[in-house]
Amino acid sequence: MKIVSGLGSIDDYITFVNAGADEFFCGYVPFSWNEKYGIIAPLNRREVLFYNVQIGTKGDLEILKQMVDYYGVPVKITFNSLCYMPEQYPLIEEIMNECISAGFDVFIVSDPGLLLYIRQNQIPCKIHLSGETAEVNRP
């Protein structure tokens, strides 16, 4: 059995590792996204501000990577809002590139349009399909 836990703050990483977590997922929402979209168009499925439910600074992202390297328990970054507007994709790409440059290249994605954008723009990452992905069955 693998224990996968959401990570709301880098402060929780070591505690959860010591409790037996095998893997983490978390959002990274930098100021550039909040300034433009806030919680009206969330970057992931945690639509709140002013509460530690995601990583909010590049500095925290870099510290988290150092902890991952030391403890060996991986973290995947979520971009799992149900859907984004196509005009948001370039900013999402910038944020993904920040994550990649910090050492995080595995993303959890739910929007099929974003999946296509990632592949068309050859963003060098690995993708996990989010459990938030909508299923649509048509006759």
Task: Classify the helix fraction into a percent range.
Answer: 25-40%
Number of strands: 5
Low-confidence stretches: none
> CATH superfamily name?
Copper homeostasis (CutC) domain
Mean pLDDT: 90
CA-atom Rg in angstroms: 15 Å
Quaternary structure of the protein: single chain
Give the helices and strands as they follow along the chain: EHEHHEHEHE
Straight-line N-to-C gap: 37 Å
Strand content: 15-25%
Shape: globular
What count of domains describes the coordinates? 1
Structural class: alpha/beta
CATH topology name, in short, is: TIM Barrel
- How many strands, what sense, and barrel or not for the largest sheet? 5 strands, parallel
Strand order of the largest sheet: 1-2-3-4-5
Summed up, the helix count is 5
CATH architecture: Alpha-Beta Barrel
**CATH class category:** Alpha Beta
Notes on the protein architecture:
- It is a single chain.
- With 139 residues, this protein is of the alpha/beta class.
- The protein has one domain (4-129): Copper homeostasis (CutC) domain (TIM Barrel).
- 36% of the residues lie in helices and 15% in strands.
- It is built from five helices and five strands.
- The chain has helices at 13-18, 31-37, 58-71, 89-102, 112-120, and strands spanning 4-6, 23-27, 75-79, 106-109, 126-129.
- A five-stranded parallel beta sheet has the order 1-2-3-4-5.
- α5 links the parallel β4 (106-109) and β5.
- The longest helix has 14 residues, at 58-71.
- It is globular, with a radius of gyration of 15 Å.
- It starts with a strand and ends in a 10-residue tail after the last strand.
- 28% of the residues are buried.
